[in-house]
Automatic annotation (TrEMBL):
Gene3D superfamilies cross-referenced by the UniProt entry: Type I PLP-dependent aspartate aminotransferase-like (Major domain) (3.40.640.10), Winged helix-like DNA-binding domain superfamily/Winged helix DNA-binding domain (1.10.10.10)
UniProt entry tagged with the keyword DNA repair: no
Domain HTH gntR-type: 25-93
Protein name per Swiss-Prot or TrEMBL: PLP-dependent aminotransferase family protein
GO molecular function, one term: transaminase activity
InterPro entries registered for this protein in UniProt: Aminotransferase_I/II_large (IPR004839), HTH_trans_reg/aminotransferase (IPR051446), PyrdxlP-dep_Trfase (IPR015424), PyrdxlP-dep_Trfase_major (IPR015421), Tscrpt_reg_HTH_GntR (IPR000524), WH-like_DNA-bd_sf (IPR036388), WH_DNA-bd_sf (IPR036390)
Keyword terms: Aminotransferase, DNA-binding, Pyridoxal phosphate, Transcription, Transcription regulation, Transferase
CDD domains per UniProt: AAT_like (cd00609), WHTH_GntR (cd07377)
Record-stated family: In the C-terminal section; belongs to the class-I pyridoxal-phosphate-dependent aminotransferase family.
Amino acid sequence: MKRHDVAGNWIAEALALRLTANEATTLVQQLYCSLKAWIQHGELTAGDTLPSSRHLSRALGVSRNTVLAAMDRLLAEGLLIARQGAGLYVADLPALLTRAEAPPTVPVRYSNRGNKLLALSGTLSHGHRAFAPGVPALDLFPREQWQRLLRRHYYQAEMAWMDYQTSGGLPALKAALCDYLRLSRAVRCRPEQIVITQGAQQAFELITQLFTDHGDSVWMEEPGYGGAQACFLASGLAVTPIPVDQQGLNPSLAPENAPAPRLIYVTPSHQYPSGVTMPAPRRLTLLEHASRTGSWIIEDDYDSEFRYDTPPTPSLQGLAEQASVIYVGTFSKVLYPGLRLGYLVVPEALAEDVRLAHARLHREGNYPVQSALAEFIANGHFTRHIARMRAAYRQRQACLRAALAPAVAAGLRLSDGHAGMHLLAELDTIAEEGMLVRRAEAQGITLSPLSRYYLAENKHPGLVLGYAGSTESELTSAGAWLSDAYLTLRQHL
Ligand SMILES: Cc1ncc(COP(=O)(O)O)c(C=O)c1O
């Protein structure tokens, strides 16, 4: 191999700059790591000679033994080679070893399902800025009270909770939740029918794994919730978007030759994102359709607690005794999404299987947190928090409406806002939607385009304006900005 003298040498100077009297790392370690990194990154290449140990020890002001110890490690690893009378030089190493931190060159090939999932995931919003949909008021959450509760429940945690769990959630939480669901949501259930999951998303995945095979058909509301769409598409299901009208998903609008679905996903209390409520006759039609086709209805009851003029609409699950409905709920909206707690209510005959499948597939645990939540619910903090949030969200919505009043006067159509955590603003064209979204982005404002919630080609333009997670002053200023932007756009059309 050809050897090159590394002129006089930058190595000693560069090493001198790097050495520190750092107690955590010895001088030997520092010399070794620096030289190794230069060899691996190609700053020192095969055949480059190193300065002698005597030279380095003088230049660096360290003992010769320190230099020799570092060199010995590099020799032992085969990165350096010693030749009698020629000193040390860099070995000829395979490219794989010398380019340790180069970006991977192996082409990445995701599955078709993976690609569909990634296509949908690119639209996740980061950070909670004005109008982020689905985000509750984190600023109004009773954090101190909750943290006290968490601390106590961690402190008192039973040793048995450290083991693997298969109960489908802490029995105390299931009991407290069951009382709440029966009373507030008219859900027919006993605690044994509940399985606690890591949010609604994991509940959708569990249902999908248990009830469908690759290629099976699922009916999805159109427009509909991206989390459920992602779950079904990533599981390889054939998703049929069924149009939503003023009464929610309309089974009679399903394509004529559509195969019978295994699953039908609906948000009957408050359709996401259109906001419509499914009236009783449509609910009965849907139940009848599911029983005729042998489908399971997934009832996603994500934010029905927030209804401002009338009491919450009772659940679809509670309508019929033996209906094939799986009720899914979440604490993401009523408490906070980082909690990652949700639940399924399944018919009694399935409860054991679903519990076991959940334990097998996802594992369960975090019982101290579940225990704290059980107390939070049982002591009434939960319903009090919901009542406070209902009042706060009504107020926040009013602020947003006031800020958007000039745009509304100029033709912007806003949804009625009787329920939920967002308003829907309908626009005339997709181009208009795109322009507003891009201009808002530049201002640090999250505008979620309604067209993104559609799977089929026929998309309606609009904006999904979350208001629950923003303060009144944020809503006033972001709302005023949006109103101005809308008026400006109209003037130029
Ligand atoms: C329609 C709908 N369902 C469910 C959820 C809650 O999902 P998770 O419990 O996984 O946070 C959301 C949250 O944005 C939602 O919009």
